[in-house]
């Protein structure tokens, strides 16, 4: 593996899960692999889990880590080619990327959808420039369309907790006051299409995701119906994707909040969320605090997913 931008690059899933299990059980077995190798983690957006879990994974592999928050302390970066740079951005991405490439062996990038131009977001304009101009392996720490390290952790978690050969997994939209990217739901849908499960997506009308991510999922507009017999409830908010509504908040309908009444319709389902989560918007206190909530082990698996992927990248150097 050189670059990692989608869970589709994990290859044979059974093997990927076996590698993840190995990393979880033997976190320090590959300390020599990363010796004198430097990881640069670059954040255009905030992070708690991705920052800490990826750094921990790199340290477990013996790597040195440099973290840069682009918007705090670095020069503000211009990303458009051809602009007269007379504004507040003193440096261009086209110099910054190869310069950063000189200082490290592997680069992780977090660059969310900007919701200014759907085509720019959905062609991964920023991430692709890192791949093209850094000269180094690049992995996504949540880009415009996907969050593969989160999804891989979600897949590992479902694999660990599932009680049935083919569980029913329901991804439900839930309300949120601000416009959030589709990266997490897109990526989760991509992952569930790769797993052996009955996958259902439920959301209000107008929140349809891009068909290439929905894949073979069943889309059910009635949330309660979707919850019936579910083994896993995966809650997430996202802003609209379709047409002129791209990036817009169309609804803050709290009748879509995940509560214990809806959870009672499931087959004692586990509750999942990538975090950060807004309580009593996305999910009620009692559901997220219930024994069926596995948000903490899910977050813990972020170290496992990052370490498994980083190891593959190190092996390719
Ligand atoms: C981000 C999102 O929804 O994509 C990051 C989630 C991992 N969430 C927020 O910005 C609140
Ligand atoms: N789940 C996740 O990626 O969290 P952070 O945004 O805190 O990194």
Can you tag this structure with a few keywords?
317 residues; alpha/beta; 4-stranded parallel beta sheet; Rossmann fold; 5-stranded parallel beta sheet; 11 strands; binds phosphoric acid mono(formamide)ester; 14% strand; binds N-acetyl-L-norvaline; single chain
Uncertain stretches: none
| SS-derived structural category | alpha/beta
Name of the level-1 CATH class of the largest domain: Alpha Beta
Give helix and strand order, one letter per element, not per position: HEHEEEHEHHEHEHEHEHEHEHH
Helix content: 25-40%
CATH superfamily (homologous) name of the largest domain: Aspartate/ornithine carbamoyltransferase
Summarize the biggest pleated sheet: 5 strands, parallel
Taken together, the total number of domains comes to 2
Looking across the biggest beta sheet, what order are the strands in?
Answer: 9-8-7-10-11
Q: What percent strand?
A: 5-15%
What does this structure look like?
This protein has 317 residues and is of the alpha/beta class. The protein folds into two domains: 7-146 and 302-316, Aspartate/ornithine carbamoyltransferase (Rossmann fold); 151-299, 3-Layer(aba) Sandwich (Rossmann fold). 36% of the residues lie in helices and 14% in strands. The protein contains twelve helices and eleven strands. It has helices at 13-25, 49-60, 93-102, 118-122, 125-133, 148-161, 183-194, 211-214, 223-227, 260-263, 285-288, 295-315; strands at residues 38-43, 64-69, 77-78, 91-92, 106-110, 138-140, 168-173, 198-202, 218-219, 232-236, 270-272. A five-stranded parallel β-sheet has the order 9-8-7-10-11. Strands 2-1-5-6 form a four-stranded parallel β-sheet, with helices on both faces. It has a two-stranded parallel ribbon with strand order 3-4. Strand 8 (198-202), helix 8 (211-214) and strand 9 form a beta-alpha-beta unit. Helix 1 packs across helix 12 (295-315) and helix 2 (49-60) packs across helix 12 (295-315). The radius of gyration is 20 Å and the shape is globular. The model has no long low-confidence stretch (mean pLDDT 98). N-acetyl-L-norvaline binds at residues 142, 180-181, 183-184, 274, 276.
């Amino acid at each position: 593996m050189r670059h990692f931008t989608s869970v589709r690059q994990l290859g044979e899933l059974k093997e990927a899960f076996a590698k993840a299990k190995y990393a979880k059980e033997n976190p320090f077995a590959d300390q020599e692999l990363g010796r004198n190798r430097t990881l640069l983690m670059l954040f255009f957006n905030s992070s708690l889990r991705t920052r800490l879990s990826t750094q921990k994974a790199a340290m477990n592999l013996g790597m040195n880590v440099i973290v840069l928050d682009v918007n705090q302390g670095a020069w503000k970066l211009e990303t458009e080619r051809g602009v007269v740079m007379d504004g507040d951005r003193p440096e261009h991405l086209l110099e910054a990327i190869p310069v950063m490439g000189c200082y490290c062996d592997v680069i992780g990038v977090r660059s969310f959808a900007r919701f200014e131009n759907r085509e720019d977001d959905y062609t991964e304009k920023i991430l692709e420039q890192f791949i093209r101009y850094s000269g180094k392996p690049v992995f996504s720490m949540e880009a415009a369309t996907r969050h593969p390290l989160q999804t891989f952790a979600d897949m590992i978690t479902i694999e660990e907790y599932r009680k049935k050969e083919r569980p029913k997994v329901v991804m439900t939209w839930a309300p949120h006051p601000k416009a959030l990217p589709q990266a997490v739901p897109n990526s989760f849908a991509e992952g569930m299409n790769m797993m052996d499960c009955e996958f259902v997506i439920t959301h209000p009308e107008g929140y349809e995701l891009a068909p290439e991510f929905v894949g073979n999922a069943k889309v059910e507009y009635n949330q309660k119906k979707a919850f019936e017999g579910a083994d896993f409830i995966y809650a997430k908010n996202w802003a609209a994707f379709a047409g002129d509504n791209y990036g817009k908040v169309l609804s803050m309908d709290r009748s879509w909040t995940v509560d214990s009444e809806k959870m009672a319709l499931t087959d004692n389902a586990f509750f999942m969320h990538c975090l950060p989560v807004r309580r009593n918007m996305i999910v009620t206190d009692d559901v997220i605090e219930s024994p069926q909530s596995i948000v903490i082990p899910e977050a813990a698996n972020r170290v496992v997913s990052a370490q498994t992927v980083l190891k593959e990248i190190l092996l390719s150097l």
